[in-house]
Amino acid sequence: MNHNGKPNLTTRSIQPENQESPIHFIKKWETPLSYFYRRNHFPYPILNQYNYWLQVIDGQSKKRYIHLTELLAMPTSTLTVPLECAGNKRANFSPKVYGEQWEAGAISQGKWTGVPLRNLLNDTELTMEAQEIVFEGADLGKKPGTEGIVPYKRSLPLEKALHPDTLVAFQYNDQPLSVKHGHPFRLIVPNWYAMASVKWLRKIEIINHRFSGPFQTDDYMYYPNENNDQGEFPVTTLNVNSTIQQPLNYSILNSGTHKVEGIAWTGRGKIKEVQVSFDNGQTWTKANLSRSGDSDYSWIRWSLVREFTNIGEYTILSRAVDSSGRVQPDSPYWNQKGYGYNAVSKVHVKVE
Ligand SMILES: Nc1nc2c(c(=O)[nH]1)N[C@H]1C(S)=C(S)[C@@H](COP(=O)(O)O)O[C@H]1N2
Ligand SMILES: [Mo]
Fold first, then answer.
1. Which UniProt keywords apply (predicted)?
2. Whole-angstrom distance between the N-terminal and C-terminal Cα of the chain?
3. How many CA atoms lie within 13 A of 268 on its CB side?
4. Quick one: which of 44, 95, 239, 248 has the fewest CB in 10 Å?
5. pLDDT tens for residues 67-100?
6. Does the pTM exceed 0.90?
């Protein structure tokens, strides 16, 4: 709630709690906690003192516990990292797909502080056979299509898990992690869609095979065909993407000068260029870019000032290009579960 008693977030579902950030009004590099989107598969877990212990299990089923106070005493990293839900912008898919009908606000970013996961693991735990690391959250419940009660659980391939920027985070914007965002620990996996950033982390398991589970090999898979499950592949790296923040869609503007602005981000390399069109894609102009400076992962901000002399309707588009050569497509990559929407961002305005 804000000081007017109005909600800060847009509710998509209450139980479990799924709420969107007011992304069109977020101008800071660090989203204040009360504006951070919330994405949950299950009701919030009930935490107790045992949640302050992280369980590490190696390939031989040997267990070890690490307490929060031990993490606090270790060297930490602080990184500005956006979390984007794989279902962000899902509402734009046509034909429609099941799942939360997210618009553009299932993304937020801020400063995460934690211990690089690789520094928490012992050499003896990482044997030659180790293939993946599995992360389990403290939340659980029934999942349609799956027997019984299951926890939220996912794995990472070894090279991503051991990347120096993959963190076991315990602070957001210099404050202890809030309960809704994973207190006391969550994983932060830069450059990947946020399903990988497991909240309420309680168990880390090193395995010598490929993990499968409902949140790994059923959800968070792209199924590109409408009528069969063939050609499926896992959701991992963020697509190159941008969002027009202002003007808002369906705005009525006075003729004269207006600033078009927004954010752009990618999971591969950096944003190299953002192009804006005022004529629904016939001509494009480069926007001015501004970068936060302290992180390669941060979204960038872009803007362009334009004089609207003629009255009438305009379709404004933004299109980001990253240093790996990826460009936002004109039309989205449709898939059954509606992940990874990254078609050009579009608003329709009227100038009078
Ligand atoms: N334990 C647990 N971790 C989780 C989830 C969850 O439901 N349970 N949801 C994931 C998904 S799909 C997203 S998009 C992000 C959302 O993080 P947030 O609620 O802090 O914004 O957390 C990820 N980590
Ligand atoms: Mo998500």
1. Metal-binding, Molybdenum, Oxidoreductase
2. 35
3. 15
4. 95
5. 999 999 999 999 999 999 999 999 999 999 999 9
6. yes
* CATH 2.60.40.650 location in the chain: 241-351
> Which ligand 1 atom sits closest to the C-alpha of 42?
7
Q: H or E element: which one contains 20?
A: strand 18-20
Q: Looking at the domain 10-219, which fold is it? A: Sulfite Oxidase; Chain A, domain 2 (3.90.420)
Rounding to the nearest 10 degrees, give the CA dihedral for residues 137, 143, 149, 155. Answer: -40
CATH architecture of 241-351: Sandwich (2.60)
Q: Can you tell me the distance from the alpha carbon of 224 to that of 251, in angstroms, rounded to the nearest whole number? A: 34
Q: How far is the CA of 195 from the centre of ligand 2 (A)?
A: 5
Q: Is the pLDDT of residue 3 over 90?
A: no
Which part of the chain is CATH 3.90.420.10?
10-219
**Are the CB atoms for 304 and 276 separated by under 8 Å?**
yes
Can you list the alpha helix ranges (DSSP code H) found in the chain? 68-72, 117-120, 158-161
Q: Is 152 in the pocket of ligand 1 (CB under 6 A)?
A: yes
Measured between alpha carbons, how far is 193 from 267 in angstroms, rounded to an integer? 8
Cα 88 from Cα 158, distance rounded (Å) = 27
